[in-house]
Amino acid sequence: MASLRILVPVKRAIDYAVRPRVNSAQTAVETAGVRHSMNPFDEISVEEAVKLREKHKSAVEDIVAVSIGPPKTVEALRTAMAIGCDRSVHVETPEAADMLEPLQAAKILKQVVEREKPNLIIMGKQSIDDDFSQTGQMLAGLLGWGQAYGASEISVDGDTLTVRREVDGGTDVVKGKLPMVVMADLRLNTPRFATLPNIMKAKKKKVDKMKLEDFKERAENRLKTLKVAEPPVRQGGGTVENVDGLISRLKELGAL
Amino acid sequence: MAALRFARPALTRACAAAVRPAPTARTAMAMPAGVRYASTKLTPNFTMPTSEDLAELRERVQDFTRREIPEEVAAKTDRENAFPNEMWPKLGEAGFLGITAEEPYGGLELGYQAHCIVMEELSRASGSIGLSYAAHSQLCVNQLTLHGTPEQKTRLLTPLIAGTKIGALAMSEHSAGSDVVSMKTTATPVDGGWLLNGSKMWITNGPDADIIVVYAKTDPGAGSKGITAMIVERSFKGFSCARKLDKLGMRGSNTGELIFDNVFVPAENQLGETNTGTRVLMSGLDLERLVLSAGPIGIMQAAMDLVLPYTHTRTQFGTPIAHFQLMQGKLADMHVKMSAARAYTYATARRVDEGTMDTRDCAGAILYAAERATECALDAVQCLGGNGYINELPAGRLLRDAKLYEIGAGTSEVRRMVIGRAFNKEYAPR
Fold it and tell me: How far, in Å, CA of A138 to CA of A183, rounded?
């Protein structure tokens, strides 16, 4: 079996249980004072990397977590290391900077890949804040690597990866040779809880700091946010007496 | 005039005495009675956690409760009056059972602020799971940490912290509750150890416990100077739990009556020196009260978690009821009570972590938090109106759970007495 060097890109996002609110200037979602945690899809990819090590033992040489974001992003990296990553890379962005677009993130990740030399990248298929679901594909494209999107099962045999993907109406099994980018779906696994003893140990693991300026290749911002607004409040429905009532009501509304 | 002039010196003397009490401590640094250095309450490798460490810890516990103790688990624990015993290894694996214990035995040595945080967040998810957690991790684990020998710690503390064994502490008896020193359980010296006889009442985790710290009279004539602490294991012959008690609240935090019928306790299971049990007991009580005070705070937070969204979505007369002034007043009062209690508890815990323990504040923190929690829970029932009075929503459970904290670990009355006595001691004629 080929030795695996796994890179797991993770993102710190607003916690999934928080109800997002639009800021008063209507330019973005309010993030100040809001609970953040690791993007759930990324937790799944970290778990999968750790599971691969548990299964293939020493064949997994290295698991590195990488994240791009403001100083507090290091919390997500600590969680990743508490779950089982060996070390991490933090590409620090200024505190109030706009969130990177997929291509910008992919270009930075590409250079991290050139530095860290992984042969397998496992990442969440999307992050729950901007929901672009593009970074992984772009990264694979930039690297010229094979990719598998929406993984619900991963198995490694030699330098061949078999990935079961969730597609509309069923599953799709793809095979590919390393190096590869795999994007995790929700049903790939159930991530473990980062225990306190492991969190304490993770504090001693290494975090390499980098700045945006350290990256030669960078993409420009292509999107301009005009306005962010809450979805319209749902109007309550009404009840009808029977099927005839339903039909006449639908006709009234021009639906039939 | 003469009378007035006469009276003045006496008055100033009284004032001076009130401002600066005559030092009673024999040490060079005068400390009021009831305050003592708590360095002996901390493990040797303890370092003060930063506020970021503590904030992170709180988030981790919240992650845990979100996964493992959702409302359905809390409701089921209460409804079935049975602790979900599979929770123990989970709590152990998460690292919560040895917050104040030493690292070689699996502990984290994070101190009492950290312990209060875990207690608060677990109690916020389920009052009864929180209470059983405290009985295990504070009453049993911490007493072993502070008074156990290295051999006892390796043998008993390690499985307790891993959550593979369940711990309890047995102090109260039928006729010795608040007046605990009047206990009737006795241990008579025999070859190689003690023979324990008697019974203990209202013991949290009693029906499930594998390892129990028990206090018994070893010199019945010597009053408080004749008590010794010892560790009873479930497997000991003659030990049994007579019955699981049916309680008003904290249902699922299993409480039992324990019977000791000629139980042989080997000498290696004695905790601390012979006849020094009262000191073990009393110092433990301060820490017990401090950590338990986070329980009612968690219940108050649970009340807020329930009431705030409800009152903002429940509409009457075309307005969310939270917008009515009478309701605003209630919500504000609940918030202030909870926040004041929280501030008191964490300030006291911080001082203990810094090395000073004040008996008055350990008793005061739980006295205050417990009474406020019952008030907040009653208000929560009221805020929910008809829905507060039915068991589909947890308001009633919060109320039943909250009331325990005015009774368990010393009643409100005893806590006031403890504080009063500390003052009396301070002003005692020398």
Answer: 12
- DSSP assignment of B202-232 equals EEETTTT-SEEEEEEESSGGGGGGGEEEEEE
Do residue B334 and residue B374 come from a single domain? yes
Query: Which chain B residues touch A37 with a CB distance below 8 Å?
Result: 59, 63
Q: Where are the beta strands (DSSP E) in A93-145?
A: 120-124
To test the contact with chain A by mutation, choose from B53, B54, B69, B93 the residue with the greatest count of A C-beta atoms within 10 A, namely B93
Look up the CATH number of the domain holding residue B402.
1.20.140.10
What are the tens digits of pLDDT across the range A111-166? 999 999 999 999 999 999 989 999 999 999 999 999 999 999 999 999 999 999 98
Residues 98-127 of B with CB under 8 A from A: 106, 108
Q: pLDDT digits over B246-279, tens only?
A: 999 999 999 999 999 999 999 999 999 999 888 8
CATH number for region A4-232: 3.40.50.620
CB contact under 8 A, A37 and B106: no
ipTM: 0.75
Residues 6+ apart with CB under 8 A from B315: B321
Number of CB pairs, chain A paired with chain B, less than 8 A apart: 29
Here the tokens at position B222 are: 């010597």
Name chain B contacts of A199, Cβ cutoff 8 Å: 56, 60, 95
